[in-house]
Amino acid sequence: MDLYYQHYGEGKPLIILHGLFGMSDNWVTHARRLADYYSVYTIDQRNHGKSGRHNVFNYEAMVDDLVGFFEMQNLEKAHILGHSMGGKTAMQFAFDYPAKIDKLIIADISADEYSHKHDILIDAMLSVELENYSSRSEVDKELANSISDPRIRQFLLKNLFWKDRSSLGWKANLEVILENLHEVFRALDSPNPFTKSTLFIRGSESPYIKQKHIPRIKKLFPQSHIETIEGASHWLHAEKPDEFFNIVKAFLEK
Prior knowledge:
Elements: E1 5-8, E2 13-17, H1 28-34, E3 39-43, H2 59-72, E4 78-83, H3 85-96, E5 101-107, H4 118-127, H5 136-143, H6 150-157, E6 160-162, E7 168-170, H7 174-179, H8 181-184, E8 198-203, H9 214-220, E9 224-229, H10 236-239, H11 241-253
Parallel strand pairs: 2-3, 2-4, 4-5, 5-8, 8-9
Antiparallel strand pairs: 1-3, 6-7
Helix pairs in contact: 2-3
């Protein structure tokens, strides 16, 4: 799989993996700050951003993509930071290829299975007849009929792009993602826990890492600890960027 990526800085490699509907562009600010200390790679995962599209969409495939990226960049080991879906990709990679990871950072996700309503979001995006619209604001107004939260709409609208001078398209491969949402939200497990230093960062207002999730985190990542960013939701890195950056930097410098 041909993965689009952006690279910043020099030093020990750090790979950043975005979440569902995200892309490498979401992490430019953090990547540039971390580039003062590390060689930072932000990757578009398959079926997202500018990376290749494929009908197979699960964590095993995304791990294979990451292995290929290591080979392409001649990387033996790297720190990995993954948010949400990217966090689960990073966890599965850690189970399968622990020798390739120095330190692991997981942002606001656990290895558990989650219920979700993301099919509603995708249905809303697919229902927009983009050929009838000529601006992001027009599409936003249409999406508002189905998605009331403006923050969610703005995040999804980052997937809009101009296919040519007169027609809009979605960067994400929405049809394939919709068919495989069960894969995105399923639980991860491994007979071999990841025993290297691991940090989980959660938002205090997010439902993705609660007390009920911690036992499996500790079982699968026995050398992990959890940091909480007060007042942050699932998009903790965007809502509290300084707090998030300082936690990441302190962990990597230990």
